[in-house]
């Protein structure tokens, strides 16, 4: 990376809350230019942006439905106009699904795959040409421990995240000669709204299964994403790294 940190742009998708918000704040804290993507949560995204700006970084918010190629292209044009062409792309946006496979509709399957897989594919295809041209880039995909081990009653989500992992490994080989690394972070249980459906008893039981005895904090996941984005992490590519407190080894 030849440009100064203050001129290096990071796009974090799904950054209006949870892990995505923590990632955006981590980069802002270190002086990067940060683009915060959201789909509908305008006020939440603005709140994250305000926190990021407190660190003195350049920040912008941008809305797009990642299931739509046209909306992603419009998002890319807005970023370009503001000088936020991403050097680092964090594909964090995703949705989960809990329930028996026998109850899943075709529409639910299509929608979940569109957000978790198609959106990642479209973002990579849109933003990686500039990285290739610059001979530097970082693509970091947020996966899940369930993409490694699978989970009962989360077949859709496990399948999608398994696809994220395979996509990561394959694209890493394709882009390595161009100086672009591609890695995935596959967290265990993180204390976010996605796990808010758990009642206190379920949370306690789940925490007891994890060797470190607790859920991860979003900032702990953000720290790993940040590390993978650094210039000195250029020899790490094609890896699926799972911060899960020893739950899966």
Automatic annotation (TrEMBL):
Q: What keywords sit in the KW lines?
A: Elongation factor, Protein biosynthesis
Cited InterPro entries = NAD(P)-bd_dom_sf (IPR036291), Sc_DH/Rdtase_CS (IPR020904), SDR (IPR050259), SDR_fam (IPR002347)
Which Pfam families does the record associate with it?
adh_short_C2
Keyword Iron included in the entry's annotation:
no
Q: Which domain of life is it from?
A: Bacteria
Q: Does the keyword Protein biosynthesis apply?
A: yes
Gene Ontology MF annotations: translation elongation factor activity
Q: Which family does it belong to?
A: Belongs to the short-chain dehydrogenases/reductases (SDR) family.
What is the recorded name of this protein? Elongation factor P 5-aminopentanone reductase
What organism, scientifically named, is this protein from? Answer: Paenibacillus thermoaerophilus
